[in-house]
Design goal:
Blueprint lengths: L3 H26 L24 H7 L3 E9 L3 E2 L5 E2 L14 H8 L22 E11 L5 E4 L1 H4 L4 E5 L5 E10 L4 E6 L22 E6 L7 E12 L9 E4 L11 E3 L5 E8 L10 E5 H14 L5 E2 L2 E5 L2 H7 L7 E6 L4 H5 L6 E5 L2 E2 L3 H9 L6 E8 L2 E8 L1 E2 L22 E3 L4 E5 L6 E6 L4 H4 L7 E5 L2 E2 L3 H13 L4 E8 L2 E8 L4
Antiparallel strand pairs: 1-4, 1-6, 2-3, 4-5, 5-8, 6-7, 7-8, 9-10, 9-12, 10-11, 11-14, 12-13, 13-14, 15-22, 16-17, 17-18, 18-19, 18-20, 20-21, 23-24, 24-25, 25-26, 26-27, 26-28, 28-29
Amino acid sequence: MFNSNGRSKLKTMLRNSTAAGLAAVIVAGSVPAMIVPAYAEAVRVEAPQVPSFADVVSAVSPAVVSVRVQSNVQTAQDESNFQFGFGGRGFEDLPDDHPLKRFFKEFGMPGPDARPDKKPNRPRGEGRLRPTSQGSGFFISDDGYIVTNNHVVEDGAAYTVVMNDGTELDAKLVGTDRRTDLAVLKVENPKQKFTYVQFAADENMRVGDWVVAVGNPFGLGGTVTAGIISARGRDIGSGPYDDYIQIDAAVNRGNSGGPDFNLNGEVVGINTAIFSPSGGNVGIAFAIPASVAKGVVDELIKSGTVERGWLGVQIQPVTKDIADSLGLSEASGALVVAPQAGSPGEKAGIKQGDVVTAVNGEPVKDPRDLARRIAAFAPGTTVDVSIWREGKSMAMKVELGELPKDQQASAGETTPDKAAPSTEQALANMGISVKPAEDGKGLTIVDVDPDSDAADKGLQAGEKIVSVNNQAVSTADEVMKVIEQAKKDGRTKALFQVESQNGSRFVALPIDQG
């Protein structure tokens, strides 16, 4: 039993503990007048915003179109990597329960044989138009001129352009240029003014600048990707005028002919090729630069074709070794392997072994630079060509011809000479053994030391040496005389002209100074 003193102590303890609890509440955050439940807010980060491409895209998109091409063929292949050819039947001839037909219907897509005119019962057989390719393009004038790739429209018989709002318009082919892979279409009977874009000034493009690619990848319709200019002046081996911009924007099949824009909405390049081991985007795409496209497009609109100046010489790069062998101070210019018979270059006096160093006073960096410079002149133009010959610089005037339509950048083939088991003399210090050629012109290489500089430079048995330091040779003694003279002149290398199945080329080999 509690006595009166015990009860008094208990009351005191309860009173003190209640006060302590209230004090704890007050210290923790003060006692509210009323209890209000608290709700969490959505995460919101206040940070600098990255610039958007949306303004550029909204401005240029109406000028970008999809290009559909039809041809008189039995089977077709579109740009979406599908092969269409159903045993001679068209897509519309397949049964309704065919898996491929169900696929296109399920996703609301037109069949691969779908035609803009949608005319039923078109006659089958030869002459029937079927889709063969699709790509991208863009308006460059308000009256309907469109730029795309030659490989998109090549062999086409009918062309349809699809605008970003879905409008389909018939177009005609104005002209093509295979060497730069460019083509121009024009909307037939335009009934409206079109939104169009213009080419950027080439000097304003820098590696690292943003580019926005707009096109029709895999036939999906208008698609936008972005990246930067990764490099300039790329040579991908597609022709003598390669001068591509490399970009890392996602470019895929169907983007061909589509434009790459800068942030001012100007076209800096036209997508034409991708590097892709798998067939998809790997971040390496190549575009025709605006400076190249503008001139070609203007000529195609004017005349439907492109006329280029022609010098008519087979050329190769000047390496450091070749420059040393010729006494040139730097490895630049274009080495003439051979002038073509009857060409403007031959008529003007350009010879095998000459190095073209400048055109109209402008230095020539390499063979591609020479090819582009000459091509930029109209046929019939007279130009001043500076060459390096026998240790001296000289100039000559050349009236350019017109580049033949079927002119190839590669050299013509020559017939190799058969190697004989015996040799006349071994040029041991160079690692090659030779014998007189059966036709009396030059020396046939019989053997090459695999550990020699000659082997490193690619010389092989069966090839023929026709000149050394631009002097014709037919015996090993003549070769040695030329080399001895080179030593007296202080040269450390000799320039060998070698003929093979792949044509003629120059190779610089070191010579013993002992």
